[in-house]
Amino acid sequence: MASDALTTRAHTTATAAGRRRLLSARSGLTVLAVVLSLISLFPVVWMVTSSFKTRATVTDGRLIPRDFTFQNFVYVFTEVPFGRYLWNSFFISTVITVAALFFHSMAAYALARLRFPGREKLFGAIFATLLVTAPVVLIPLFLVARELGLLDSYAGLIIPAIFNAFGIFLLRQFYLGLPKELEEAAVIDGCGHWRVYWNIVLPMSRPILSALAIFFFLANWNAFVWPLVATSDQDLTVVQLGISSFQTQYTSNWNYILAAATVAALPMLVLFFVFQRRIVESIKTSGLK
C-alpha cells in the first residue's frame, strides 16, 4: 500500500511539473509574440501620430503630438490631386483583383482536376515563375508593353499584373482538397466541366477567393515599380507614385509626407484587420498537397 501511494504521489508530482513547464513555455511564447507585435506595430503608430504634428515638431521624437493639427491632411488634398491618385489605385487594384481571381480559378481548376498531356510540366513551369523576381523581367516587360502600345494607359497598368503564379498555386492546392464525389455526381447528372466549375467549384471556393482578393488588392494598391516605368501621364499616377512625387517636391516637409502615407495606408489596414480571420482560415484549409 505504501509503495502504491508513493507511486501515485510521484506520478502526480511529475504531471504537475509537466504542466508547469508547459505553462511556462506557453507564457514565454505569448510574451515573445506580444513583443514582436509591438515592434511591428510601432512604425505604423508613429506614422499615424506624426501625421498630426506640425512641421516644427514632426521630428521631435515624441510619439504623442504636442501641437495637434489636421492641416497636414487639408494640405495633401488641396495642393496635389491626391483624390485622383487614390481613385487610380482603387480602380486598377479592383480590376486586377477581379480578373486575376477569374482566370486563376479557371487555370487552377484545370490543373487540379482535368487530365491532359503535360499537365504536371505546365504546373511546374508556372510554379517556377515564383523564383523569378520582378526586376529581372522589368525591361522585357516594358519592351513588350511598348510594342503593344500599352504604355501610358490603364491597360498597361492592369494587364501585366493579372498573372500571378502564387494565386494559381494556392487555388490548385485548395481544389485538390475538395471532395471529388460532388463533381462526379454533377457529371452523372449531365453537367460539363464549365457548369461543374461555375455552379459547384466556385461557390465552394469563396473562403480562399476572399483571402486571395485581399492579397491581390493589397499588392496592387502598393505597386510602385511597374507604374513608375509604364506611365508618365499625371492622370494615371497611382497613390504610391503620388507619395513619392510629393516627397520629391517637399523633401523637408515630413508632416505632409506622413499625412499622405497615412491616408494611403489606413484603408488597407482596416481591410486586413476586418478580414484577417478569413485569411488565416483560408490558408489553413488550402493545404499543401
Automatic annotation (TrEMBL):
Membrane topology reported for the UniProt record: Multi-pass membrane protein
SUPFAM superfamilies: MetI-like (SSF161098)
Ranges that cross the membrane: 29-48, 85-110, 122-145, 151-171, 208-229, 254-275
Pfam families: BPD_transp_1
Residue ranges of domain ABC transmembrane type-1 in the record: 86-275
Gene3D superfamilies the UniProt entry points to: MetI-like
Classification via PROSITE patterns: ABC_TM1
Protein name per its UniProtKB record: Carbohydrate ABC transporter permease
Source organism of this protein record: Streptomyces rugosispiralis
